[in-house]
Design a protein that fits this description.
Helix content is 57%, strand content 12%. It is an alpha/beta fold. Strands 2-3-1-4-5 form a 5-stranded parallel beta sheet.
C-alpha cells in the first residue's frame, strides 16, 4: 500500500506534481484544503490552519511568546498549549489519512509519518533564482516582489516545521527522495515517485 508525502519548497510545482501523482496512482490527494476538516474533527477548537501556521513564523514567535509568558498574558498560555498539542495532532491526522493509499501534500507530513511502512517521503527543491523566476511567472509579479514573497513563504515553512517537530524542513535525511524541480519536468518527477512507490 503506497502513501506518498510531498514537501515542496515554495516556488516549485508541488501542487501540480501531487495532483498528477494522485491521478496516475488512482489515490486521493490530501492537500491543506482536504486535511482541514480532518484536523477539525480531532481538534474542533482549532482555527484556520493558514492563521495557525502564520503565527509560528510571524507575530507570535518564540521570543514574543517568552516575553508574554513572563507577564502572564492569557493569550500566551493558550499559544503555548497549542504549540504543545500540535505535533501529536499532526501525527493523529496523518495516521488517519495514511490508513489508505494517498498522496499528502504538506511540508511536515514526512515528520508525522517517519516510520510508516511503504511510505515515500519526497522533497521538491530548486535553486533560488529558478524558484523566484517560476514564482514571478505563476503569480504575475516582478522578480523583486516575487523574491520578497518567496523569502517570506520560505521563512514560514521553516518556522512551522521546526515548531512542530524540531527539524529542518530541508534536511535530506528526512526524505526517501529529494528531487530538483529545475532539472526535472513535473511529469518526470511523477514517474520517479510512482516508481519509488512500486507503481508504474
Amino acid at each position: 500500500m503506497s502513501v506518498w508525502t510531498i514537501s515542496a519548497q515554495p516556488g516549485t510545482p508541488g501542487v501540480e506534481v501531487a495532483a498528477e501523482l494522485a491521478a496516475r496512482a488512482g489515490v486521493p490527494l490530501f492537500d491543506r484544503k482536504a486535511l482541514e476538516p480532518i484536523v477539525h474533527e480531532f481538534s474542533p477548537e482549532l482555527g484556520d490552519l493558514d492563521d495557525v501556521e502564520g503565527r509560528f513564523g510571524g507575530r507570535l514567535n518564540a521570543l514574543a511568546l517568552a516575553v508574554a509568558m513572563n507577564y502572564g498574558a492569557p493569550a500566551a498560555f493558550r499559544e503555548l498549549e497549542l504549540r504543545r498539542a500540535l505535533p501529536e495532532l499532526g501525527r493523529k491526522v496523518m495516521g488517519e489519512v495514511a490508513k489508505q493509499p494517498a498522496v499528502i501534500l504538506t511540508a511536515a507530513a514526512a515528520n508525522a509519518l517517519p516510520d510508516r511502512p511503504g511510505a515515500v517521503h519526497a522533497r521538491l527543491w530548486a535553486p533560488q533564482d529558478w524558484r523566484v523566476a517560476a514564482y514571478a511567472r505563476t503569480e504575475v509579479v516582478d522578480r523583486a516582489k516575487g523574491a520578497h514573497e518567496l523569502a517570506h513563504a520560505d521563512h514560514v515553512e521553516r518556522a512551522w516545521v521546526r515548531a512542530l517537530f524540531d527539524v529542518r524542513v530541508d534536511d535530506p535525511a528526512l526524505y526517501t527522495v529529494v528531487l530538483d524541480a529545475s532539472g526535472l519536468a513535473p511529469d518526470r518527477i511523477v514517474e520517479v515517485l510512482l516508481a519509488a512507490g512500486g507503481r508504474k
